[in-house]
């Protein structure tokens, strides 16, 4: 079994959503895309936001999402949000 599970990751990512609002992540596919994008950023040289010594980039990305170190932006985010993404540790599900 994977730790954390997909359900745990989805709950962690959506924990900041106000009641009545649509959750940012609704499927396993979205979690997979977000973690893959973050892993590529880590491979590209970005600094990890959690202790990462000896861990693979994908494991670090999952841990960052689970600990809410990374915020996922919805598909309808604007270019202004994308510029902010690079500065604040956020991921966009576009591209």
Question: Could you describe the 3D structure shown?
Answer:
With 95 residues, this protein is mainly α. Helices cover 46% and strands 6% of the residues. The protein has four helices and two strands; from the N terminus they run αααβαβ. A two-stranded parallel sheet has the order 1-2. Helix 4 links the parallel strand 1 (71-73) and strand 2. The protein is globular and about 40 Å long. The chain starts with 5 loop residues before the first helix and ends with a strand. Residues 78-87 have low confidence and may be disordered.
Give the biggest beta sheet: 2 strands, parallel
Alpha carbon gyration radius: 13 Å
Strands in their spatial order, largest beta sheet: 1-2
Compute the average pLDDT: 81
């Amino acid at each position: 079994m994977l730790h954390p599970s997909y359900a745990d990751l989805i709950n962690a990512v959506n924990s900041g959503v106000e009641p009545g609002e649509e959750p940012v992540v609704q499927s396993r596919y979205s979690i997979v895309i977000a973690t893959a994008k973050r892993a590529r950023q880590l491979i590209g040289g970005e600094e990890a936001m959690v202790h990462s010594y000896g861990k693979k980039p994908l494991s670090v990305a999952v841990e960052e999402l689970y600990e809410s170190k990374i915020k996922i932006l919805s598909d309808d985010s604007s270019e202004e949000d994308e510029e902010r993404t690079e500065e604040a540790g956020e991921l966009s599900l576009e591209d």
